[in-house]
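Issue 218. Parser rejects a valid record. Input:
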Amino acid sequence: IAQDSGKLGPKNCGEHLEQAKNEFPVCKCGFDMLDAGFFNDCKKLEIQKDAKDFNIPIIRSNRKLVATENGGLRDPCPLVFNSAWKSQETKQVTDKFNYPVCSGIQRPKNDEDIAFMSVLELGQLLKAKLITSEELTRIFLNRLKRYGPVLESVITITEELAFQQAIEADQVLAKGKYLGPLHGIPCGLKDIIAVPDYPTTWGSKSFKDQVIDVEAWVYKRLKSAGAVLVAKLVSGSLAYDDIWFGGRTRNPWNIEEFSTGSSAGPASSTSAGY
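Output the parser choked on:
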């Protein structure tokens, strides 16, 4: 993970790349081991350089927080681990997922109160047909557009996809089928999670135009549960902290403070009621 330096352009990339290969050769091998062939050399260099300048010093500094006086770690890891050692097979019974059921929920008179209801309360409104997923989606999209630029917590609003999924959720519910507590509920995803046809930027200027046309597993699960994707949210540059190529994500209750990360966008957005 590394911060976005923004200092490497196509003109000086080759020069820095050659220098970095000599100074930090292990990194390229690491990318090869991870099968990260979708990175070009400039992007590899960007990550490599910032890891060296930013992450490694932080890790070395943090070691002092966990080190003992004699230089060892308080909880040292074993050098060798074999899962078969002293193991006993146990039969695990997978219980069906249960969640509390809300009853007697009434629709508030204003959208502001609706925005701050819990997922279970919103689900009860949907089941009771006191609100539609399409209405709910419009409420949250309006809040995203209003507050997102102030808090710098949203990277991409997926409006077209959101209304499509909301209408489908309403149609399924109209047929008497309820998919569970996320059915018809608007949600956001950290922008490290791939969604086809939309950028997956990882919060980094180097990848702000990147589109990964595969569905991440977590997105597939949310779709199958009937959730409605309304936005891709900030996760900080390469999923670190709250600084990204569009600014720095703020605390909605005090915009002089910042959200920190890597879930900066989701934290700020949830707290702000969108």
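Fixed in the parser; the record now loads. The chain has nine helices and seven strands.
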